[in-house]
Design brief:
The complex is a heterodimer of chains A (234) and B (253). By secondary structure, chain A is mainly alpha-helical. Chain A contains eight helices and two strands; from the N terminus they run ααββαααααα. Chain A has one domain: Arp2/3 complex 21 kDa subunit ARPC3. Chain A has a two-stranded antiparallel ribbon. In chain B, strand 1 and strand 2 form a beta hairpin. In chain B, helix 2 packs parallel to helix 10 and helix 3 runs antiparallel to helix 10. The longest helix of chain B has 30 residues. Classes of the chains: A mainly alpha (234), B mainly alpha (253). Chain A: Keywords: Cell membrane, Membrane, Transmembrane, Transmembrane helix, Transport. Chain A: It comes from Glycomyces harbinensis.
């Protein structure tokens, strides 16, 4: 499981589906560039570059799931929580392109599919869940942690559901066993998602405690302080 | 994955000397030809493999390196192994095991095409340095803003990866050895610290760029070099052969 990525290789999904996915992905990335630039202006290049370098390094960090089994982050939820959906999706896209061209991970013809699943679906689903959860949950350390946890699980499962959908449209005809295959893929990714969620929630809470202004999901508000630290301030 | 150098292997073969934009176009063409070949055309896949093996030999890339790097696709090989049991169709018997014939073809198709696709991509990453790939993409009219972000990301990924490695060593030196997920909180917190450092570094870099008159575009007037017709011809001969084989097998089938 050390390198269980979702990078789709050559011709698992047929040509027309890949082409449509590539077109949709290209359009959405164009939109991401426009929206990310609106918030950052000329700061976009250095900040997005450094954020991408961070996501890249975060993906290299292996964390234990159970004794002897480890996984690594996909980073979609992490990017959505810290950077927002537009900049976050942009950074994960750049990471996927680097992996396809410099590490031969994922086929060049499946780049659109890979970007659609791991950068666009994962990041935007995570952000949607995060925004909804933060409306309900209190803005405390645990509230934020729980919201990020839910967002991470959903993002990983949604990315794998994206693959299942693409496989249903343009993959091998598997007939009756499609349900079993979809269940196996989604079930595995619920487990991967829980691992991702623990690490992501821990990382985002750590940032929120030290520099709440850097957590995009908090939109500039601070975490509610617990009574003990208030007393110390007084 | 070590650092952000990619899988580049320095060398001075004819493949190393080809312009990167030519190699990128050749890779896309070759991968499309692989994808378009019908699964029953076994000899076509054999020819592609021989062609790629010849190119690897020309680039002086050892076979062991290629094979160890091919493991990147292993999760999908599980799917390839599952196909013979999942796909419906006339059964074939192997001793005790009964599998379906179309399923076997589907598994073979996935295995062969994924492996050849990875090999073709490895040929590009082994013979082209990171800066070369970016220059090639820029010649191919890839949006400049994405290339600038990528260039920054690759440049600073070295630093960020070094920070992550350093923190891991520090945790190990303090006997942190998480075996289960719920013990990994130190790992998550150090990830948070790396993010804060990266973001603050990004702001500092932007400030120094602004101090030097940066207004949103890099003052690079020297574009990457164009490729000669000879280079285009040489590089595109491989995907042309593959495309011809793909078209031939598709017509025969």
């Amino acid at each position: 499981m050390s390198d269980l990525a979702l990078h789709i290789p050559t011709d698992v999904i047929d040509g027309p589906t890949s082409l449509v996915a590539a077109l949709i992905a290209a359009l959405l990335i164009g939109l991401c560039v426009v929206r990310a630039r609106r918030g950052l202006d000329e700061r976009l290049v250095p900040l997005a570059g450094l954020a991408t370098a961070f996501i890249f390094a975060a993906q290299m960090l292996n964390f234990p799931i159970a004794a002897g089994v480890s996984g690594h982050l996909l980073g979609g939820a992490l990017a959505a929580a810290l950077l927002g959906p537009w900049l976050g999706a942009l950074c994960v896209t750049v990471v996927i392109v680097i992996q396809a061209l410099l590490f031969a991970d994922g086929a060049v013809t499946a780049l659109g599919l890979n970007v659609a699943n791991m950068a666009l679906i994962a990041t935007f689903c995570a952000y949607g869940v995060l925004v909804l959860a933060l409306k309900v949950l209190p803005r405390t350390r645990w509230g934020l942690g729980a919201a990020v946890f839910a967002a991470s699980v959903v993002s990983v499962v949604a990315a794998s559901a994206g693959f299942v959908l693409q496989f249903w449209i343009g993959g091998e005809e598997v007939g009756q066993s499609f349900g079993a295959m979809a269940a196996a893929i989604l079930g595995t990714h619920v487990l991967v998602g829980v691992g991702e969620a623990v690490i992501t929630a821990g990382a985002v809470t750590a940032v929120a405690l030290a520099r709440p202004d850097l957590v995009h999901a908090l939109r500039g508000t601070r975490l509610a302080q617990n009574p003990r630290t208030l007393k110390e301030h007084a | 994955m070590s650092g952000a150098d990619g899988l580049y292997r320095p060398g001075d073969s004819p493949l190393h000397r080809l312009r990167p934009q030519v190699k990128i176009v050749a890779l896309v063409g070759f991968t499309c030809a692989i994808a378009a070949t019908p699964r029953e055309a076994l000899w076509a896949f054999g020819t592609y493999a021989l062609l790629l093996a010849g190119l690897f030999a020309l680039a002086r890339v050892p076979a062991a390196w290629v094979l160890s790097r091919s493991l990147v696709e292993s999760p999908f090989l599980v799917l390839a192994l599952a196909f013979p049991f999942m796909v419906a169709g006339p059964p074939v018997h192997f001793g005790f095991i009964t599998v379906s014939e179309p399923g076997l073809w589907a598994g073979w198709n996935l295995f062969a095409k994924a492996t050849l696709g990875v090999w073709a991509a490895l040929l590009l990453s082994a013979t082209t340095p990171v800066a070369g790939v970016l220059a090639g993409l820029s010649r191919l009219r890839c949006p400049e803003i994405l290339l600038q972000i990528t260039a920054f990301a690759i440049r600073y990924a070295h630093l960020t990866v070094a920070e992550v490695t350093q923190m891991r060593l520090a945790r190990l030196a303090r006997c942190d050895d998480p075996r289960f997920l719920w013990q990994a909180s130190a790992l998550a917190r150090s990830l948070g610290v790396v993010f804060i450092r990266s973001f603050e570094r990004g702001e500092r870099i932007w400030q120094s760029m602004a101090a030097r008159g940066y207004t949103g575009r890099l003052p690079l007037e020297v574009g990457p070099a164009p490729a000669s017709a000879l280079q285009w011809g040489a590089a595109l001969s491989a995907p042309a052969v593959a495309g011809a084989i793909a078209a031939w097998t598709a017509v025969i089938a």
